[in-house]
Amino acid sequence: MRDPGDLYELTADADSVPEGLHLVAGLTGFADAGGAVSQFTEYLLGTLDQRVVANFDADLLLDYRSRRPIIYFDQDHLTDYQPPALRLYLAHDELGQPFLLLAGFEPDFRWEQFTAAVLALVHRFKVASTTWVHAIPMPVPHTRPIGVTVSGNRSDLIESMSVWRPHTQVPANALHLVEFRLQESGASTVGYVLLIPHYLADTEFPSAALSALESTSASTGLIFPTDRLREQNREFVAKIDEQVGDNPELAKLVGTLEQRYDTYMEGNTLRSPLTDEDGELPTADEIAAELEKFLAIRRNKNDGPSN
Questions:
Q1: CA distance 71 to 145
Q2: Which of 140-144, 162-166, 297-301 has the highest mean pLDDT?
């Protein structure tokens, strides 16, 4: 095999990466139902503090003819060429906790070499665990929580969150191979397959990105800002519900999917251990308030009269 180090170049910021961080990954290009991965990574990069620690070589990994980059034609000249990127970032969540984020295009070529490169980075930074997400269309209704299929070697998450555990062959994603090799090496890894309503697979469904964030929080303890996404999702779902109400055939389809979903979930009602009874993740303010309350109780106990 070619040297895995040939595929990427570390930046000066790589020397400042703390050891033992969680690695979060999402690559675009294949099976991104509901725009889950693209929204997920764009939201993280657009809302969190982050800096690049490694750049992968697109010329070695990408088939430009199958996924052509966009360039802008401005009347009589070309501007704003945006080359495709695959990068490893050092990012910080809403509470300032650092983590690594692998985001960008899914490689078309050299999967084994790419996988070896990711494992080399995992080893270099002594990564605590690797979490990755992707999404597939499923005959499920948008009126119910998005389910996930969990893979990897985190049995706690598989038992608490995986609503569908099939025996099947599937077209592989490059990160499937990364997970497979990590599991072979005994490293902690978890993959989330988000099960997206098939009739929304070609849209940007905000709930898909929310599910990706919540699933990632469950495996890493990281906290992400979600208020803007939740508002977008409320507006999106309201429009879908309006269309369903105006279309009897679509309403019948959604009703049938709801019945099937509810029947399936009767003996399989799982929810993320980080969510409340309404399926909501606590906000950073709520967590901070609980932490202050806890610390106040501890202080009162320590300051109280001794026996």
A1: 38
A2: 140-144
CB 120 within 8 A of CB 188: no
Residue 251: is its pLDDT beyond 50?
yes
Tokens of 270: 């799982």
The encoded tokens of residue 304 equal: 């109280």
Do 157 and 9 contact (CB within 8 A), yes or no?
A: no
d(CA 265, CA 148): 13
The band of 266, judged by pLDDT with boundaries at 50, 70 and 90, is: confident
| DSSP 8-state secondary structure symbol assigned to residue 269 | -
Note the pTM of the prediction, 2 decimals: 0.85
Query: Is the CB of residue 6 less than 8 Å from the CB of residue 61?
Result: no
For position 31, what pLDDT does the model report? Answer: 80
Please, are residues 34 and 145 in contact by the beta-carbon 8 Å criterion? no
**What is the distance between the alpha carbons of residues 54 and 121, in angstroms, rounded to a whole number?**
9
On the CB side of 278, CA atoms within 13 Å amount to 3
Residues 6+ apart with CB under 8 A from 104: 27, 28, 41, 56, 84, 85, 86, 87
